[in-house]
């Protein structure tokens, strides 16, 4: 058994397959997940787990070199959480964000029910 970090086995396996430049999406419970994109559904009930909890857990596990938010998240708690994680996200419209979902390597669905509580993280390398 792992001592610390993410315990969810499917999520751990997906994280282990990430490479430089791969996109990981942390999604609210309403974001449409395209067919064929690997997804780990962590949603239990509305709000559990939260966007903030999943973002914090993933930031401990992966190297992130960039982030993308929907413009509609600007000025919200979502933008503040992403900034507090040390990221300076670029922005696109929500429709453009959804159009990028098929290129994601992994989507992690949360129980978050806050509008536009989605972020796309670009994995980096530690060297």
As a whole number of angstroms, the C-alpha radius of gyration is 13 Å
Count of DSSP-assigned helices: 4
Terminal Cα separation, in Å?
Answer: 28 Å
Helix/strand-derived category reads: alpha/beta
Largest sheet: 6 strands, mixed
Shape: globular
Report helical residue fraction.
25-40%
| Strand fraction | 15-25%
Assembly state of the chains shown: single chain
Q: Overall mean pLDDT score?
A: 97
- List how many beta strands DSSP finds: 6
Uncertain spans: none
* Strands side by side in the biggest sheet: 2-5-1-6-3-4
> What's the order of the H and E elements?
HEEHEHEHEE
Summarize the structure.
By secondary structure, this protein is of the alpha/beta class. 27% of the residues lie in helices and 21% in strands.
Characterization of the model:
- The protein has a six-stranded mixed beta sheet with strand order 2-5-1-6-3-4.
- The chain is built from four helices and six strands, in the order αββαβαβαββ.
- The chain is of the alpha/beta class.
- The chain starts with 8 loop residues before the first helix and ends with a strand.
- The protein is globular, with a radius of gyration of 13 Å.
- The mean pLDDT is 97.
- Strand 3, helix 3 and strand 4 form a beta-alpha-beta unit.
Descriptors:
127 residues; alpha/beta; six-stranded mixed beta sheet; 4 helices; globular
Secondary structure topology:
Blueprint: H1 9-16, E1 23-27, E2 39-41, H2 51-61, E3 64-70, H3 77-84, E4 90-92, H4 94-100, E5 106-109, E6 119-123
Parallel strand pairs: 1-5, 2-5, 3-4
Antiparallel strand pairs: 1-6, 3-6
């Amino acid at each position: 058994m792992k001592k610390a970090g993410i315990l969810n086995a499917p999520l751990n396996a997906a994280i282990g397959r990430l490479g430089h430049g791969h996109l990981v999406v942390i999604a609210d419970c309403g974001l449409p997940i395209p067919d064929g994109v690997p997804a780990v559904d962590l949603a239990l009930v509305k709000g559990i787990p939260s966007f903030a909890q999943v973002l914090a857990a993933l930031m401990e596990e992966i190297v992130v070199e960039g982030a993308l938010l929907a413009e509609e998240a600007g000025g919200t708690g979502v933008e503040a959480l992403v900034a507090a994680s040390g990221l300076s996200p670029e922005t696109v419209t929500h429709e453009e964000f959804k159009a990028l979902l098929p290129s994601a390597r992994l989507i992690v669905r949360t129980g978050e029910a806050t509008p536009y509580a989605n972020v796309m993280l670009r994995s980096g390398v530690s060297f």
